[in-house]
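Review session, final week

We close the course with one last complete record, chosen because it touches almost every idea we covered. It is Replication-associated recombination protein A, a protein from Candidatus Cryptobacteroides avistercoris with 426 residues. Go through it on your own first, then we will talk.
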Amino acid sequence: MLPPLPERMRPKNLSEYVGQRHLVGEGCILRNMIDSGNLSSFILWGPPGVGKTTLARIVSNSLEREFFTLSAVSAGVKEVREVIDAAKKNIFSSAGAPVLFIDEIHRFNKAQQDALLGAVESGTVVLIGATTENPSFEVITPLLSRCQVFVLKSLDAEDLDLLLQRAVHEDVVLKERNVQIKEKEALLRQSGGDARKLLNILEIVVDAKLGSNPIVIDNRSVTECLQENVAIYDKDGEMHYDIISAFIKSVRGSDPNAAVYWMARMLEGGEDPLFIARRLCILAAEDIGLANPNALLLADATFRIVHSIGMPEARIPLSECAIYLASSPKSNSANMAIDKAYEAARADKTAPVPLYLRNAPTKLMAQLGYADGYKYAHDYPGHFVDLEFLPESMAGKVFYEPQPNRHEDSLKAYLQACWPKYYSKK
């Protein structure tokens, strides 16, 4: 029995690898590491289906290193130690230290990661980890400090189109079936930048049209086929994309009932509760923000609690937080303010700090006018002084614009009293 299309099309070397040009393109960091043979431990962080596992195998094969693999879902400390013991027997191989690839390394607990630390530090193994979650939160600091982190991106339309053409013309099965892709927009859209998902969809649609000659694929046929086969092709993808999207939009839309329903769907489907807790933290800052600053405190507390107690009890604080956030007033003013500030910072990266806002720790700096003219706010009535704090070229710019809600109304009143020239009372 033939393996699924994504496995049949898995690249075996860098010349076949699609995407991540910022890492494997000529002169880029991971390409240089392979070409030089100086392989050090690293973690591949990116969404599903962008080539993390494939890249780890290509790295190992290119350098002809022995390759061990563990899945963090099923492996424990015992399995980690067994692999390390096996690696020690090959440490003096002329090809170099064996590669230990750990898929979903974010699911390893502290004890499992501690068991890896000595072997990575001593060079017994070169660790390559793959994760869809931010390693800053999920990988212990001592292990993270010994690894470089490479960020992988979702595949763009050009990458996905190349994969489609290769599959149709090079796959041992599809090239015999006279597959013609008339329209590809639905294929690209449904894949969400995930190569594995794209190829799974293509195979499902082709299988649904067996007997046709040629097999013509257009947007309508893809949409109709997927409506009948969602459970087949989209188990992981649905949990990570479609349902989390519905959950986020339900909280943002102030519907606590829909929020807890979609959250229950995710938890019932095996979603990592910490993934949901992180999304709640983002929602609290991005969509509720200054309309209710307590929301961020509750979301942060929820994340810590979920991390401490785990499932099934974690479902209760998650439910409490989701309901609170959905039922809270909304504001994205903080998000809009930082976006505007980023835009201004990118437009003028060299705007000097006004001299009166600089410190003057030395006599020379004081003579040059550093700190001269600065007014200490607490020396003035109301602990406020009218002073320009932006660079001269940006004087008067307004990044934060309060939105109409009870909490920001009070912030706006204060700002109007302090800065009537920027925050008018109209």
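Two points worth writing down before the exam:
Confidence is low (pLDDT under 50) at residues 231-235.
The longest helix spans residues 235-252.
Good luck, everyone.
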